[in-house]
Design brief:
With 265 residues, the chain is α/β, with parallel strands linked by helices. The chain has eight helices and seven strands, in the order E-H-E-H-E-H-E-H-E-H-E-H-H-H-E.
Length: 265
């Protein structure tokens, strides 16, 4: 179902982590609302079909789209993506939305068995948190971020709660939320808002990699007031609404998109 929002028509969204889960759903929802998509993803041959299917859907909608299969946490690749975008899209085009949904980190306990080491901790925080800052810095320095734009970053209840083996990712989510608050402060003079989106437990490829995910899914389904898990589409719909001009004064928050799951004990 297409929903044309004239305020989003023809604008560009940069989706980091575009091939599955929240990133893919958000890319499609924003495209359904009139936006063009620049997607960055890291996929091997086995999962490239997801990307190809997404491209087909965007093409059906008549949207422009560019996709880059690179490591979004690599500074050189980031430069290549933005230079290619400027060349392909045209010098006058800017991004209205930056959506950060990079789910690549080490899921190990701090002390037991094959426990977390320094390089794994550093990598997790770099990919899942710090990369948001570097992408935003580059968009600003290249004058690629439109005034009145939006920054969204996917966090989780793990930003404030603990789960065995989730320590490094939990630290990354807490850092990500802190980065969003800082971006909200420093980007306000440009009219750019920044918010963390805290989804409820959602059955995504990233969740399936967490040890004990079956227990998390069972508990969330039981305690969610709606009696179901959050879906990527729930999050995507919220991002569309928050991208509209009417939502420009919402900034610096952790916004729960979870059907009330987080408030129920």
């Amino acid at each position: 179902m297409q929903h044309h929002f004239k305020d989003l028509e023809g604008k560009w969204a940069l989706i980091l982590g575009a091939s599955s889960g929240f990133g893919a759903a958000t890319a499609l929802a924003l495209a359904n609302s009139g936006m063009n998509i620049c997607g960055v993803h890291l996929d091997r041959k086995a999962t490239m079909e997801n990307v190809e299917n997404l491209k087909i859907e965007l093409q059906k909608l008549g949207r422009k789209s560019f996709f880059f299969n690179v490591n979004a946490a690599d500074a050189d690749k980031r430069k290549e993506v933005l230079e290619a975008f400027q060349k392909e899209a045209g010098a006058s085009e800017k991004f209205h939305v930056l959506f950060h949904s990079l789910a690549f980190g080490t899921l190990k306990p701090f002390f037991e068995g094959d426990f977390l080491n320094q390089s794994q901790m550093d990598m997790t925080l770099n990919v899942m948190a710090n990369s948001l800052v570097y992408w935003t810095q580059d968009l600003i320095s290249r004058e690629l971020f439109a005034d009145g734009g939006r920054v969204f970053a996917m966090t989780s209840a793990g930003g404030e709660r603990v789960w065995k083996s989730y320590g490094a990712v939990s630290a990354a989510k807490a850092a990500l939320e802190s980065h969003i608050r800082q971006l909200a402060l420093e980007l306000a003079p440009r009219g750019i808002s920044a918010n963390s989106i805290r989804a409820g437990v959602t059955d995504t490829p990233a969740l399936r990699k967490i040890p004990g995910n079956e227990t998390m899914i069972g508990l969330a389904t039981k305690k969610n007031p709606y009696g179901r898990l959050t879906t990527p589409q729930d999050v995507a719909n919220a991002v569309v609404v928050l991208s509209l001009p009417h939502a420009g004064w919402i900034s610096g928050n952790v916004i729960g998109v979870d059907g009330g799951e987080n408030v129920v004990e």
